[in-house]
Amino acid sequence: MAxxxxxxxxxxxxxxxxxxxxxxxxxAIVEPLTDWLNARxxxxxxxxxxxxxxxxxxxxxxxxxxxxxxxxxxxxxxxxRNLIDPLSMPPAIPCRTVEKGxxxxxxxxxxxxxxxxxxxxxxxxxxxxxxxxHSGVSRAIVVGVAADYxxxxxxxxxxxxxxxxxxxxxxxxxxxxxxxxxxxxxxxxQVAVL
Length: 194
Known about the structure:
The chain is α/β, with parallel strands linked by helices. The protein has helices at residues 12-15, 27-38, 125-134, 150-160, 179-187, and strands spanning 3-8, 45-53, 95-100, 112-113, 123-124, 139-145, 164-167, 172-173, 191-193. The strands form two sheets. Strands 1, 2, 3, 6, 7, 8 and 9 form a seven-stranded parallel sheet that branches.
């Protein structure tokens, strides 16, 4: 059975030690995550979705997130770029990107997924995931950063949409809590950690 993979915010500002908001140990996941993604096939992967945390210098100071974190992932900046290039994914696997302005990739209405290869038309986020469920895709694998923020909210939304969720711990890093802690404290037995 094919899975949908959600790669959360593997962007320079979170991954690199000199980024605006580095997550401890995140650099260590880039190479193994890239290798793991490139080993996937169309038989085992229905789609790969990359989330991009996306902010703007003129509006970030007024956001709720600004109360917790310094400005980061400003669209178009070096810190916004993804360290795992969506265009480098296996060509037989559909790939999509989505830009989100808050922790929770499900919280903003009207978000659209884009095909970085320019093959498929943009599609509404909810329609994309509903189409996967209707086509028989029932498991989501979530990787990336940060386990206790954006990864956690991605997992929550996938469960709410009927997916079973697996998170490979070696391909995820948290700011304060590890993915094992997040799952134990927030999801009980709803999420499998590999």
